[in-house]
Specification:
The protein is an alpha+beta fold. Helix content is 34%, strand content 23%. The strands form three sheets. Strands 8-10-5-11-9-12 form a six-stranded mixed beta sheet. Strand 2, helix 4 and strand 3 form a beta-alpha-beta unit.
């Protein structure tokens, strides 16, 4: 009896590491002091000494049950982008610059080519965020996960000068709310998505459902649902470099508008969002109609086409819109803040 007979293939682990090296190397920053394969990753903070009060900010998250779609479609090269996005967007939301990322993959069986595909997506996400992938862990756990399934989570660290942290404390009535367009459902609400489209009934039925083309979606249902989460790091950096002070920022994740927007508001300030200020993507209309989901539930579960909400002074709106466009993203003026009980009101 040996470890391989117990279900853990050490040789497959070695092969996985060899296959992912080129992807990891493509994310390196000059501050990285260690090579892949060590017990930890080291990152120099020397370049950030010029800040008055350099402050570390961090974020951790996973991909959630969106992974079930990746299993059904046998496509694993985009979920890594989701994993990175969920972490670095939270850091950007605080005004921080992501520095490095670590991933954790737990699987029932280590298939080196599948691990490489997953890490290629993680690396792509890191390149988009300009964060180094300085380490990670692949855990083969037979008997704990089915052989063809895995879980994926990550952790990111960034830096911001303490004086530049976005807290929302200076938000005032009359500030303008801008919404950054999402790429679709992103990585939240997939338990409801799977329920609506009956994706757990059988693999055959689910694959047929995901493979069906819908003209109004511009692709198959699976392609649209698996579209990776937008990474907004460059957009937030472009806004900052344009000289705009973002007064408050909210990453629209699980809980949608109703849970996340109030997190950026101080007491006595209410966010008023105009639902007709932008075009809600077709996938959300399809979810609502197919699942008979009430509007309030939709806005309390999904991002509804807005992946991040920013509040800026009215005089900075044009500069902000231009900066976001320069960064390759789309922004909409979606509302304003008023003096009222803390919360969000959709009208």
């Amino acid at each position: 009896m040996d470890y391989k007979n117990a279900g853990v293939d050490i040789e497959a682990g070695y092969k996985s590491v060899e296959l992912i090296k080129k992807h990891v190397q493509s994310t390196m920053r000059p501050e990285v002091l260690t090579n892949l394969g060590g017990f930890s990753g080291a990152f120099s903070m020397k370049p950030f000494k010029k800040m008055e009060k350099p402050t570390l900010v961090s974020g951790t998250d996973g991909v959630g049950t969106k992974l079930k779609l990746a299993f059904l479609m046998d496509r694993h090269d985009t979920v890594g982008i989701d994993c990175v996005a969920m972490c670095v967007n939270d850091i950007a939301c605080a005004g921080g610059e992501p520095l490095f990322f670590l991933d954790y993959i737990a699987c029932g069986k280590n298939y080196p080519e599948k691990i490489e595909s997953i890490v290629s997506g993680v690396s792509e996400g890191c390149r988009q965020a300009e964060a180094a992938l300085i380490g990670g862990e692949t855990a083969e756990m037979p008997g704990f996960y089915p052989q063809d399934e895995y879980d994926l989570a990550g952790f990111a660290v960034g830096v911001v000068d303490e004086k530049d942290i976005i807290t929302g404390k200076n938000l005032k009535k009359g500030d303008v709310l801008l919404g950054l367009a999402s790429s679709g459902v992103h990585s939240n609400g997939f338990s409801l998505v799977r329920k609506i489209f009956s994706l757990d009934k059988s693999d055959k039925t689910a694959k047929e459902t995901l493979g069906a083309y819908h003209a109004k979606l511009g692709g198959t249902l699976g392609e649209v649902l698996l579209a990776p989460t937008k990474i907004y790091v460059r957009a937030l950096r472009a806004i900052r470099e344009a000289g705009v002070t973002v007064r408050a920022c909210s990453h629209i994740t699980g809980g949608g508008f109703y849970e996340n927007i109030p997190r950026m508001l101080p007491d006595g300030i209410q966010a008023v969002v105009k639902k007709d200020s932008y075009e809600v993507p077709a996938i959300f209309h399809m979810l609502a109609q197919h699942g008979n989901v009430e509007e309030q539930v939709m806005y309390n579960t999904f991002n509804m086409g807005i992946g991040m909400v920013l509040a800026v002074d009215a005089s900075d709106v044009d500069k902000t819109l231009t900066a976001v466009k320069t960064a390759g993203e789309t922004a909409y003026i979606i509302g304003e803040t008023v003096q009222a009980q803390k919360g969000v009101r959709l009208c």
